[in-house]
From TrEMBL:
Catalytic activities: Preferential cleavage: (Ac)2-L-Lys-D-Ala-|-D-Ala. Also transpeptidation of peptidyl-alanyl moieties that are N-acyl substituents of D-alanine; [GlcNAc-(1->4)-Mur2Ac(oyl-L-Ala-gamma-D-Glu-L-Lys-D-Ala-D-Ala)](n)-di-trans,octa-cis-undecaprenyl diphosphate + beta-D-GlcNAc-(1->4)-Mur2Ac(oyl-L-Ala-gamma-D-Glu-L-Lys-D-Ala-D-Ala)-di-trans,octa-cis-undecaprenyl diphosphate = [GlcNAc-(1->4)-Mur2Ac(oyl-L-Ala-gamma-D-Glu-L-Lys-D-Ala-D-Ala)](n+1)-di-trans,octa-cis-undecaprenyl diphosphate + di-trans,octa-cis-undecaprenyl diphosphate + H(+)
Any one biological process term the GO annotation gives: peptidoglycan biosynthetic process
Stretches the record annotates as Disordered: 697-738
Family in the record: In the C-terminal section; belongs to the transpeptidase family.
Gene Ontology cellular-component terms listed: outer membrane-bounded periplasmic space
The protein, known as: Glycosyl transferase
PANTHER family per record: BINDING PROTEIN TRANSPEPTIDASE, PUTATIVE-RELATED, PEPTIDOGLYCAN GLYCOSYLTRANSFERASE
UniProt-listed InterPro entries: Beta-lactam/transpept-like, Glyco_trans_51, Glycosyltr_51/Transpeptidase, Lysozyme-like_dom_sf, PBP_transglycosylase, PCN-bd_Tpept
GO molecular function: penicillin binding; peptidoglycan glycosyltransferase activity; serine-type D-Ala-D-Ala carboxypeptidase activity
Highest taxon listed in the record's lineage: Bacteria
Biased composition (Basic and acidic residues): 702-738
SUPFAM superfamilies the record matches: beta-lactamase/transpeptidase-like (SSF56601), Lysozyme-like (SSF53955)
Any coiled-coil regions, as ranges: none
Length: 738
């Protein structure tokens, strides 16, 4: 390593003069004390130049060097991706092969275990040789001095100017380096200094530290490096870019390897025969590239990118990682965190398989699916028939097959999608909470004139007049059980009027429904009491919000904020206090149990009170093999979207078929059965191997006085829209976009 800067840097006459003066001084000192032990002189120099170890810059006492962060699936083993500005990970000295330690000492500082931080004899020799010129400059820096320089030039707590000054080609900087190195050696053992050096040295090809270098060049941990591999890596640090066999000159790398092996033999670390044998080994590389960020997730799993992106968005909201968003982003890239996420690879695989089974990657329509664990809020899967990629799309296609937009969780430009009659759950909960019972009855007509003014096809004499999609199957006397099971529009619009639309809207918000569309947010804030069509699912939502809302009911009224992590561990091994379930009771348990009881009707199961008599998703019961399950379908106006959300006590899953780029492109009623099947199969994967858990029946007080079970063969409804709305679909889409 050049004593006064990089080997390629030209030296000014003034710099050369400083070099001559310093060389003369050090050479004179070396001659004067030739008979004295080197450590005696260095100890005196250290004590006179700097007081104590405590006076060193913080970065040298407690290095804040950047390290990459690792994201794993919930098994703690399956790597999703890594984040880094600098590809680097610290390892203990015991996890580095002994031959690697010997190789770096032989290559860079043969007298490492003899000097006290600076080797005056070696320094003077290098300076004199450099002044004479005539070839490559010689380095006189010890490993400890190199460590000082590496720390100061990479310290993220210092300014860019301060980091640049750490490599200034000046005598003053070199003297400071000597002082710092000498002070370090007063308090740290040689092994500790060697370990720190190996963890920060640059080995070329983007690899900082021996762990990253071992993986980058040989695809293995540093504990298993061979003699030949160790010698190759040790030879790189003198000129990483020039010697790197991946990015530079492999012949030069082999020549440096031979030099290191000869040096090891000269120090007695290995025999001459071992050196010769290692020299004869061919250069065999197994280069690996660490993924960086959400667009570089594990090969073949680019669907994980959507979950990764959701985690990144969550991360920058957490004060534990910094006071500002930029600080939190930097912490993710350089903090060396180990993040065990909540992503379940098996559930994710099934969700992705089902999403792409309904629509292919190159289909303009999409089926985003989300899975959430009740009682914790942990997000288990996020899938959609898109590649999470920044790659261009063919033929001007907006969001397919490649996109990084949050189609599953919402945010940025994604408001969400109408989820139709799945919003009837919020009306039912508000009614139950207000004291009404599951047996609350109403003779539901085919059309229901309301108090809300409206014009157009959905009006009756100037009033909004919603209709049932299948009058023969839906009209007549209904209670909450069969009103929910058969998705009777007029029953639930009537029920919402009795309860108050504002209470229904508030219930949805309480369970985590976020109004991302400006028009929806304004309606909820300023005119919720008159939002008559809200119960029919006209507000935009996302599969993640919807799954978590139903998970709240599955958890008997306990709402948990969605969270993408199980644990976060800092680089020093400390557990970061984030990601724990953040839950609160938002519903009386009996109210949630009553809603669950009615929600068993749509999926082909029976309430303990025997009041289910038909459902819109009865095939779910067969897919789950009779296991307790509940859920609800939803179709928006003109079947623009088709939705199904289902849940057991262990998982809630929602899927919404839509065209993310054009809400006027109706997906059609035919896809509803496929959406139901897809969601049900994700649930089946999630509960496979888990003990079967039964839903708790609601109290008699909330059941009320149900009528006798009606023995009637279920009628398969037609697949027309099960909701209506006075505003046109196109107009609502335009409203949401201002």
């Amino acid at each position: 390593m050049a004593i006064l800067g990089s080997m390629a840097a030209p030296r000014s006459p003034l710099s050369r003069l400083f070099t001559v003066l310093l060389a003369g001084l050090l050479a004179g000192l070396a001659l004067a004390v030739a008979a004295l032990p080197g450590n005696l002189l260095l100890g005196f120099a250290a004590r006179s130049a700097i007081g104590t170890y405590a006076a060193l810059p913080d970065a040298l006492r407690t290095p804040a060097t950047p390290q990459r962060s690792y994201l794993y699936a919930n098994d703690g083993k399956t790597l999703i991706t890594t984040f880094y500005d600098v590809n680097r990970t610290d390892v203990a000295l015991a996890d580095i092969a002994p031959v690697m330690r010997q190789a770096i000492v032989a290559s860079e500082d043969r007298r490492f275990y003899e000097h006290g931080g600076a080797d005056l004899r070696g320094l003077a020799r290098a300076l004199v040789a450099n002044v004479k010129g005539g070839g490559t400059e010689q380095g006189g820096s010890t490993l400890t001095m190199q460590y000082v320089r590496n720390v100061l030039k990479t310290d993220p707590t210092r300014t860019a100017e301060e980091r640049a000054a750490a490599t200034d080609p000046t005598v003053g900087r070199k003297l400071q380096e000597i002082r710092y190195a000498s002070a370090l050696e007063q308090s740290l053992s040689k092994d500790e200094i060697l370990n720190r050096y190996l963890n920060i040295a640059y080995f070329g090809s983007g690899a900082y530290g021996i762990a990253a270098a071992s993986q980058r060049y040989f695809g293995k941990p540093p504990a298993t490096l061979t003699l030949a591999e160790s010698a190759l890596l040790a030879g790189l640090v003198q000129s990483p870019d020039a010697y790197s066999p991946i990015d530079g000159d492999s012949d030069a790398a082999l020549a440096r390897r031979s030099y290191v092996l000869d040096s090891m033999a000269a120090t007695g670390a290995i025999t001459a025969a071992q050196a010769a044998q290692a020299k004869a080994e061919p250069l065999t590389l197994h280069p690996t590239q660490q993924p960086n960020g959400c667009t570089a997730v594990a090969q073949g799993h680019d669907d994980w990118g959507y979950f990764c992106d959701y985690l990144r968005r969550w991360w920058v909201t957490q004060p534990a990682f910094g006071a500002t968003v930029p600080e939190r982003e930097q912490a993710l890239r350089a903090g060396g965190y180990t993040v065990v996420t909540s992503l379940d690879p098996q559930i994710q695989a099934t969700a992705q398989q089902q999403a792409t089974k309904v629509y292919g990657y190159d289909n303009k329509r999409a089926l985003p699916i989300a899975a959430v664990q009740p009682g914790t809020g942990q997000v288990l899967a996020m899938a959609v028939n898109r590649h999470y990629s920044l790659a261009d799309n063919p033929n001007g296609q907006a969001n397919y097959p490649n996109t990084v937009n949050p189609l599953i969780s919402g945010g940025a430009s994604v408001d969400g999608y109408q989820a139709g009659s799945t919003f009837k759950l919020f009306t039912m909960l508000a009614a139950l909470e207000s004291g009404r019972t599951l047996s609350t009855g109403f003779d539901a007509p085919a059309k229901l004139p309301t108090r809300y003014a409206a014009e157009g096809p959905g009006s009756c004499d100037g009033r909004w007049c919603p209709a049932n999609a299948n009058p023969d199957w839906m009209d007549g006397y209904r209670m909450m059980w069969d009103g929910f099971g058969r998705s009777v529009n007029t029953y639930f619009v009537w029920l919402a009027e009795q309860v108050g639309q504002d209470r229904v809207v508030e219930m949805a918000q309480r369970l985590g429904i976020t109004f991302r569309a400006d028009s929806d947010a304004a309606f909820a804030k300023d005119n919720a009491a008159n939002w008559g069509s809200f119960t029919l699912g006209v507000a935009a939502t996302t599969p993640l919000d919807l799954a978590n809302a139903y998970a709240t009911v599955a958890a008997e009224g306990t709402y948990c904020t969605p969270v993408p992590v199980v644990s976060v561990t800092a680089a020093n091994g400390d557990r970061v206090p984030v990601g724990q379930p953040s839950c609160k009771r938002v519903l009386d348990a009996d109210v949630a149990r009553a809603a669950t009881d009615a929600a068993r009707c749509p999926v082909g199961q029976q309430s303990p009170y025997g009041q289910c008599n038909g459902g819109t998703a009865t095939g779910v019961n067969d897919i789950l093999g009779g296991r307790p399950v509940a859920g609800k379908t939803g179709s928006s106006e003109e079947n623009a979207t088709e939705t199904f959300v289902g849940f057991t006590p262990q998982v809630a899953v929602a899927g919404i078929a839509a065209n993310p780029d054009d809400p006027t492109d109706s997906v059609g009623s035919a896809v509803q059965a496929k959406v139901i099947d897809a969601v049900a199969r994700v649930i089946a994967t999630a509960v496979k191997g888990q003990p079967e858990k039964a839903f708790v029946a609601p109290s008699r007080e909330l059941a009320g006085e149900p009528r006798r079970p009606v023995e009637r063969a279920p009628v398969v409804p037609d697949r027309r829209s099960d909701q209506d709305d006075p505003r046109s679909l196109l107009q609502r889409w335009l409203d949401r976009r201002g």
